[in-house]
């Protein structure tokens, strides 16, 4: 059974605990994230999932049912709290005996774990390969992931299924066929420009495999974690929305600066990511460190990213013919929220070092 395309008709948006809290995460941290999303403009901008990553698991009871550890004393009430905010809840496991952080995995307990997640009320599962290496071959991945997908379906609860196995075995070619709504195409991101840019710009060519209900996932957002400057975070967000990537914030939402909030909640940028056509953008031009990316939108417009991976400010030009546009076109800057006018054959902007300009051309 392939992925249910109604479950993630647009790339999932929300927050995940890992990038900031890692194994220190508690139920209180997750509640605080839900409170923040509900009140700081993120929910209004489309962020709905509040996802607990690794380190929530305890042991199993006599029936083999997974129990949370002491940091999550009442998982059902936590999920109910998230739902009370009009948000959805996500959880994490591994197909191996242990998770990445050596907590209890789902190996040989797939049906029981899926049912427990459904009983608690979860809406999303991130399923991380990690220790599955010990009991499976890489070639087993499709079968292993299908097993959990079928277990989730069997619960009767709609649960978004996120495959996290770092792009091994060209997952983009089979992820949807085993029920994946999104699949990681890369190893882990971190909060450095070099790592983020390699991951993001290497997505070119994978656009053939993404679409409504099943998305390439170049990993979670680092915006606001402090390891990049403002221009670099603008590049991060601009590239991810052009890639129709899941937008899972990974910062401490209780201590968010106005600058970070502006990047994460820019509705014009988010509209590019969430566009109903479901098309992933691609590189349409490159001159050394200067790149132009484009994503066709449902209304016939084209979202365009002008990127400067170089070490000084440079002019970057989009030629309209590269976008399939043959006539004079209107250009709008989506970060400045400003119409720039109409142009005959193309548009040029000065783009700062490691920065980006995000446009809509119509």
How would you summarize this macromolecular structure in one to three sentences?
The protein has 362 residues and is an alpha/beta fold.
Q: Can you put this structure into words, describing what you see?
A:
It is built from ten helices and 18 strands. It has helices at 18-21, 27-39, 42-45, 75-84, 110-120, 141-155, 193-201, 230-242, 258-264, 267-273, and strands at residues 13-16, 49-51, 57-60, 66-68, 88-93, 124-128, 160-164, 182-184, 215-217, 247-249, 282-287, 290-296, 302-308, 314-319, 329-333, 338-343, 346-351, 356-361. The chain starts with 12 loop residues before the first strand and ends with a strand. Helix 7 links the parallel strand 8 (182-184) and strand 9. The model has no long low-confidence stretch (mean pLDDT 97). The chain has an eight-stranded parallel sheet with strand order 9-8-7-6-5-2-1-10. Helix 7 runs parallel beside helix 8. Helices cover 26% and strands 24% of the residues. The protein is globular and about 70 Å long. With 362 residues, it is of the alpha/beta class.
- As a percent range, the share of helical residues equals 25-40%
Q: SSE string, helix = H, strand = E?
A: EHHHEEEHEHEHEEHEHEHHEEEEEEEE
Mean pLDDT metric:
97
Report the sheet-strand fraction: 15-25%
Count of discrete alpha- or pi-helical segments spanning 4 or more residues: 10
Distance between the termini: 39 Å
Largest sheet properties = 8 strands, parallel
